[in-house]
Specification:
Elements lengths: L15 H26 L8 H10 L20 H7 L3 E10 L2 E10 L2 E7 L11 E5 L2 E8 L2 E8 L2 E7 L4 H9 L6
Antiparallel strand pairs: 1-2, 2-3, 3-7, 4-5, 5-6, 6-7
Helix pairs in contact: 3-4
Length: about 180
């Protein structure tokens, strides 16, 4: 007498109906997996921060205009313009560009031979993936490196500001963007 866990002496044939159901279910699972992979692949996340990174690239170009009489500021007051002036930075020039189809004006601020570029975008633009995150005075700041430049970006009043510089400490850029940290 064969033991109950021994395989049958002859293989049992799978009925045609059950085989077709298994085949259809397998194809449906594969199709769903491909659909999910394509949906995530086309979500556009690979473009996060593309506009901000392109702005930083343009900020590395030369100044070609005098500074505007009133430099733009997304905050409308108490933002970058005021923080920069308070820290001794002064507008030294500007340039107008079209970046990713968006018209932007970059104002360059100088102090002690160093230069910070400041651009205000007309809308909200996400930071690049992997950007560092911190906050100053209730403003969420993102920083990242783009070539030799250190950049900080933040959004105020629905507009994104981007500053970048070479040889300016990241902490100093944070102070310019969101104001100095509050003392405890």
């Amino acid at each position: 007498m064969p033991r109950p866990d021994d395989p049958p002496s002859t293989p049992v044939a799978i009925p045609d109906r059950r085989r077709r159901i298994g085949l259809v279910a397998g194809i449906a699972i594969i199709a769903a997996a491909i659909g999910v992979a394509v949906a995530f692949g086309l979500s556009g996340n690979e473009d996060a921060g593309r506009l901000v990174t392109a702005v930083v690239t343009v900020q590395d170009e030369e100044v070609d205009e005098p500074p505007p009489s009133v430099p733009p500021d997304a905050a409308g007051g108490g933002g970058f313009r005021d923080s920069a002036a308070l820290a001794g930075w002064t507008p030294v020039g500007a340039r107008a560009d079209t970046v990713e189809g968006v018209a932007v004006t970059t104002v360059f601020w100088g102090r002690a031979g160093r230069r910070v570029a400041h651009t205000v975008l007309p809308g909200d633009a996400p930071p690049p993936d992997g950007a560092r995150r911190t906050g100053r005075r209730g403003v969420l700041l993102y920083s990242f490196d783009s070539g030799p430049r250190t950049a900080v970006t933040w959004t105020e009043n629905g507009r994104t500001s981007v500053i970048s510089a070479i040889a300016v400490d990241r902490g100093e850029l944070y102070d310019l963007a969101g104001g100095p940290p509050r003392s405890p």
